[in-house]
Amino acid sequence: MIYVLAYPRFDAAVMQSLDAFRGKHEPARARLVAPHITLVFGVRTTSAEDIAALCAQVARQTKAIATEFASAEISYDPFEKTHKISLLCSKGADLLTALHRKLYEGPHLHEFDPEMPYRPHMTIGASVERSKLHVADTASIGTFPITANIDDLAVVRLINGELQTISTIKLSK
After folding, report:
1. What predicted TM-score, i.e. pTM, was given to this entire model?
2. CB neighbours of 156 closer than 8 A, spacing ≥ 6?
3. Residue 107 contacts by C-beta under 8 Å, 6 or more apart in sequence?
């Protein structure tokens, strides 16, 4: 499956805290992928090259995005059948939502589900038991709002449990 991810660029201290938090609260995913915002989810029917070409086109028209994560929430993910802690984007959320929508305006449009609302976020913990997430202290990551910049898009492929980067595309300055 093909995904388009944005890896927020954080302050070094925040990144270290995020890595430690994720290592404790979602260790398998933390080993698989760095902290990220998913912009395109699990495309099955379009080639990575076609997705990368669309990303390059959209990136030329999209400025780098300054974002803030202002809060955390625990929610249930019915696709993975697990509870997750997510940092929610506040500043930059509208730009990320627009970018998400533009990235589905290609040959994989049929895989876009308009009934699924998009909320820009970054998952930082997961458990089948919600109670285990209630004891996780997100304050250990840093003081809200946590700021970051998004400068590029990563087109990645998940094969046999491993994430392969197909291309990294800079957003315009």
Report:
1. 0.95
2. 2, 3, 4, 5, 33, 163, 164, 165, 166
3. 46, 50, 54
What are the strands of the beta sheet with 2-6, ordered from one edge? 37-43, 2-6, 152-159, 162-170
Q: Along the chain (173 residues), what's the average pLDDT of each consecutive run of 10 residues?
A: 97 96 96 97 92 96 97 93 97 97 90 89 96 91 96 96 96 85
Distance CA 21, CA 42 (A): 25
Picking from 32, 50, 26, 14, the residue whose alpha carbon sits closest to that of residue 161 is: 32
The neighbour count for residue 78, using CB atoms within 10 Å, is 7
β-strands 37-43, 82-89 pairing: unpaired
Tokens of 17: 């805290």
